């Protein structure tokens, strides 16, 4: 009996410990999740679409917080405004975390960071330089520039005041392109905190009260599960197309494809590839600040390359085309940020390949198309022959080891005189007397 009681006690204790362990194990899972997305590169329609979709996913999952890991040199104001509007109207707190070390929130990224419910940066990051530039790459008039800058300054000041952040510095970032690191940003109240990683960020914001348009929430992120939202294939593809280096490569592919199709009508494949590359390039050009001077230099380069194929200049035109193409690629996009320009490596590589393409392929094709046929009766047109009999208007000529019937449409030709074969009609050569020869 005593043994049974002891067994019952041990069984009861084991069951109790199991229940407690199970309860503690389930507690973190009961906490609303934190959804994390990564926004990097140029702020463009793909990023705005990605943010909108992720915000909707976070709402469907009942997330208590959406964390946007940000690393951007800037982008389109229209796309930035779409993201900011989504943040302001969101019923879920949005934290913008500039990370990892070395990342930055430039231009449009400043607006997005200032608009967030929680703004954070990782060590070794920067924020600022939000002075607007025209997306077309054209120079703005003084009046238009003043209007754009005033609008952007008032917009970011309004966002900063709404979030209780340093509105004076935010306006300075727009008007004077001011930029600072994470320590200064924290001291100047541009951001709320500095966190070395995502886990530290969630630890620091735990218990923070966030005011939303319709309610106020208290974050409980210490033990909350983290769920990542990645870009879908369509968003990734569109994001790639706003990369300056990719657009430069697409432009060169379009050039190769269209020229190959012109030289080989009916080949179809080169023309299709060229047309697709051209359309994709035009999409990217509609997003990035394109320089018309850069485009003009690229057009000039193509003209010089083609001119050298038709009128050989011992490489002078090709050299001029190569220089023009290199400068055009480097000037193709107007931006003070290297991330929004074609890199030197890509520019030099594309220039070298294109120069070789025109020198060895296009020029050879042009020479082949212009060369006189050397086989068959068609090759006789323009050739020289000897009259073996008088031709007045009919007679015979000797050409390439054989006698041919000949007829002349001009003055009579005497035997022994040199003639030029104009054309072949059937088996009769139509000839004329070679001027200044006998």
Write the layout of secondary structure elements.
Elements: H1 2-30, E1 34-40, H2 45-60, E2 65-71, H3 77-89, E3 94-98, E4 104-106, H4 108-115, E5 118-121, E6 126-128, H5 142-163, H6 167-175, E7 179-181, H7 182-187, E8 193-194, H8 198-205, E9 209-211, E10 216-218, E11 226-229, H9 233-240, H10 244-263, H11 269-285, H12 292-310, H13 316-330, H14 344-370, E12 384-387, E13 394-399, E14 402-408, E15 418-425, E16 428-433
Parallel strand pairs: 1-2, 1-11, 2-3, 3-5, 4-6, 5-8, 14-16
Antiparallel strand pairs: 6-7, 9-10, 12-13, 12-15, 13-14, 15-16
Helix pairs in contact: 2-3, 2-9, 3-4, 5-6, 10-11, 10-14, 12-13, 12-14, 13-14
Keywords:
438 residues, 16 strands, OB fold (Dihydrolipoamide Acetyltransferase, E2P), 17% strand, single chain, 2-enoyl-CoA Hydratase, Chain A, domain 1, five-stranded mixed beta barrel
CATH architectural type of the largest domain: Alpha-Beta Complex
Rg, please? 37 Å
Order of helices and strands: HEHEHEEHEEHHEHEHEEEHHHHHHEEEEE
Helix content: 40-55%
CATH-derived topology of the largest domain: 2-enoyl-CoA Hydratase, Chain A, domain 1
Please give the order of strands in the largest beta sheet.
8-5-3-2-1-11
* CATH 4th-level superfamily of the largest domain: 2-enoyl-CoA Hydratase, Chain A, domain 1
Number of helices: 14
Strand content: 15-25%
What does this entry look like structurally?
- The chain has 438 residues and is of the alpha/beta class.
- It has helices spanning 2-30, 45-60, 77-89, 108-115, 142-163, 167-175, 182-187, 198-205, 233-240, 244-263, 269-285, 292-310, 316-330, 344-370, and strands spanning 34-40, 65-71, 94-98, 104-106, 118-121, 126-128, 179-181, 193-194, 209-211, 216-218, 226-229, 384-387, 394-399, 402-408, 418-425, 428-433.
- It has a 6-stranded parallel β-sheet with strand order 8-5-3-2-1-11, sandwiched between helices.
- Residues 22-29 have low confidence and may be disordered.
């Amino acid at each position: 009996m005593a043994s049974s009681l002891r067994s019952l006690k041990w069984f009861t204790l084991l069951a109790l410990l199991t229940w407690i362990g199970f309860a503690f194990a389930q507690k973190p899972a009961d906490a609303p999740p934190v959804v994390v997305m990564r926004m990097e590169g140029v702020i463009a329609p793909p990023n705005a679409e990605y943010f909108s979709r992720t915000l909707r996913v976070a709402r469907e999952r009942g997330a208590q917080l959406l964390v946007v890991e940000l690393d951007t040199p800037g982008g389109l104001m229209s796309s930035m405004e779409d993201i900011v509007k989504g943040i302001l109207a969101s019923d879920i707190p949005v934290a913008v975390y500039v990370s990892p070390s070395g990342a930055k929130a430039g231009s449009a990224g400043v607006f997005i960071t200032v608009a967030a419910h929680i703004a954070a940066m990782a060590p070794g990051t920067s924020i600022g330089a939000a002075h607007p530039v025209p997306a077309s790459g054209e120079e703005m008039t003084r009046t238009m520039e003043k209007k754009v800058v005033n609008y952007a300054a008032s917009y970011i000041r309004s966002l900063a005041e709404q979030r209780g952040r340093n509105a004076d510095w935010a306006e300075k970032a727009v008007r004077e392109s001011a930029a600072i690191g994470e320590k200064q940003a924290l001291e100047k109240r541009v951001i709320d905190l500095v966190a070395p990683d995502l886990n530290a960020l969630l630890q620091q914001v735990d218990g923070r009260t966030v005011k939303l348009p319709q309610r106020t929430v208290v974050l409980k992120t210490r033990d909350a599960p983290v769920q990542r939202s990645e870009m879908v294939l369509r968003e990734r593809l569109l994001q790639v197309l706003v990369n300056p280096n990719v657009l430069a490569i697409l432009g060169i592919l379009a050039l190769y494809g269209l020229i190959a199709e012109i030289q080989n009508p009916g080949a179809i494949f080169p023309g299709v590839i060229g047309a697709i590359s051209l359309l994709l390039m035009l999409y990217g050009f509609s997003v990035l600040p394109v320089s018309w001077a850069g485009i003009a230099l690229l057009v000039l380069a193509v003209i010089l390359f083609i001119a050298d194929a038709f009128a050989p200049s011992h490489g002078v035109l090709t050299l001029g085309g190569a220089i023009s193409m290199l400068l055009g690629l480097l000037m193709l996009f107007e931006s003070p940020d290297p991330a929004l320009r074609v890199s030197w490596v890509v520019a030099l590589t594309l220039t070298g390949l294109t120069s070789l393409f025109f020198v060895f392929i296009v020029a050879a094709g042009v020479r082949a198309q212009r060369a006189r046929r050397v086989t068959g009766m068609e090759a006789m047109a323009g050739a020289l022959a000897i009259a073996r009999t008088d031709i007045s208007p009919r007679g015979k000529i000797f050409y390439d080891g054989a006698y041919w019937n000949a007829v002349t449409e001009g003055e009579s030709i005497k035997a022994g005189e040199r003639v030029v074969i104009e054309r072949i009609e059937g088996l009769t050569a139509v000839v004329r007397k070679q001027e200044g020869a006998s």
